Amino acid sequence: MARLRTFGIAAHVDAGKTTLAEHILFVTGRVHVRGAIKGDRPTQLDHDAVEKTRGITVNAAATTVAWGEHTLALVDTPGHVDFTVEVERALRVLDGAVLVISAVAGVQAQTRTVERQMERYGVPRLAFVNKCDMVGADPARAVASLRTRLGVHTALIQLPVGLEGEHRGVVDLIGRRLWTFSEDGATATATPVPDTLVAATEAAREELLDATTLVDAELLETVLTTGEATEEQLLAAVRRAVVSRALVPALVGSAARGIGVQPLLDAIVAFLPAPEERMVEASDPESGDAVTVASDPEGTLVAYVFKTEGTDHGSWTWVRVHRGQLRAGMRVVDGRRGTRLRIGRLGRIDGAEVQRVDVASAGEIVAVFGLDLPSGTTLCDPAERVLIGALHVPEPVVERSLRLVRGDRDQLSKGLMRLVREDPTLQVSFDSESRQTRIRGMGELHLEVAAQHLEQRHDCVVALGDPQVAYRLALAGAAGFDFTLSKQTGGPGMYAKLVGRVEPADAFQFRWEVAGGAVDSRYRGAVEAGFLAAMRDGAGGDWPLIGVAVVVTDGKTHPNDSSDDAFRMAASRALKQAAERARTVVLEPIMRVVAEAPEVRPGVLASTLLSRGGSLLDASEAGGLARAEADVPLARMLGYAAVLRSATAGGGTFAMEPRGYAAAAS
User: In order of start, what are the domains of the chain with their CATH numbers?
Assistant: First the structure.
């Protein structure tokens, strides 16, 4: 495990993630000819037909490469906010990450989201400032945007040699060496820093020392004592700071030209943690007590399901092994439900291919064939159940009607079920009043891609209606519930009583404060599931209910008629009762929007956002690129692309991400 690095690459769309991943495959010998996202030769990792036609990454893709004596397990993630759940569930299981930013644009809208996701799961990371060969490239400004816009403590550990068309290499500040690269980027050569670059190198190295001593006491003591730090001392200090997430060192280069990739691989090995250096927080499913899971290959099994990918021949379930070993044919249990499962075939993921293996040890990511489980499931040894925390799944914000134009209705139903099973941010429902199928997702592109998948995978051509905003409800105040479910049908009945209260919260919370065994704790999971289902189904009105804290304080069971189903149903109806008492307010999604355009005044961009009810956060210009940032109600952003193109003579682009909800204007 000490020679394994399991990491991901994440960034804003078009920052160059997949190009970087493709060049990593090239320099490590996995492929002999590089693919291009928008070229004739497809990339190894963007293998889905939709990815090839649209030229964007839609699905997380994994592969494994060798670099020296180390094995690098790499996951490439999408950059578009509509597919952010792919980034979310990848970062949930990775030991480290490379955050790619553009040397021209710096921090962009989705960069913020990715940084928050990395912070949420405590992922140590490096930054790679890409596109140093592009017009307007300014790596120092891009790194400064990490500090000012994200609050990240960062420092350059490399300097670019030349910029824009003159970019030809990088200077390693820690080792004081110059890296130059062949025309195709396949080989890298290290030489001493030339005299013309010594002064700039030493000045930048002093800045790196200052930044590192701020977060590493051992290096500070060394510098105060000797006035200097050796290469080995600085390497060790930067590694300690990265693993503790106190520092995000920044490297520079151009993935498209293959400049800086080999030093980046060296940095991944040198600075990102091995599995044995990472601990996973879990809990005991019975008592709720906290449990720490260490990456011990000799321990009892703990593994985490984080992605399901359907195929025509069955489903592959992506699993990260956190402790012990996962073997084909072994018996495991679902950590939450306690149900027993049998592991089928195992495979190591390599882009679109899966290479069969018999065993996976702690630290590895593998696919399990035929294990149809939702993301967020913990797999355990039957002798010791633990539960790793659930994934953060953002709420869908755009809804469209869906109508079958050509194809079989049964195939459409199967296709929709498969899409929902694979993507937890996609929701499908049937409106009995309008007799329409409704599909909800993270954006217009998300739903358009889902429609393409229905056509390509299931031969079902569908038409999507006009986009509509997916509103939500929130409690206006607190209220109590006291609900008894009692049904007799001649045979075994249904009985469950629940007493407690609900109140507004930032996110769903569930507290079990039942004393004296009034309700057997074995029903706790069913009660929680019932409240969640009721929120999703709109217990308070026409839209799903969000931000509810539920406290169950009392209840009652029947020796014969109580069951999981009874308590699940009682919880659902108890929430409806409480929501009626508390009353609800309608919420609309608010988006953080960043608009950019060359050769226009920032005020032009700002006006397009202000006219749509936006709250302006920033308007600036750097490197010939104007930028405006605002929080805007999603309902006002529909059709914005045409307005922006008109205002900027076709040169404007924008990106947006959900920032939360606010009370909808009446």
Answer: 4-277 (3.40.50.300), 279-388 (2.40.30.10), 398-470 (3.30.70.870), 477-582 (3.30.230.10), 588-663 (3.30.70.240)
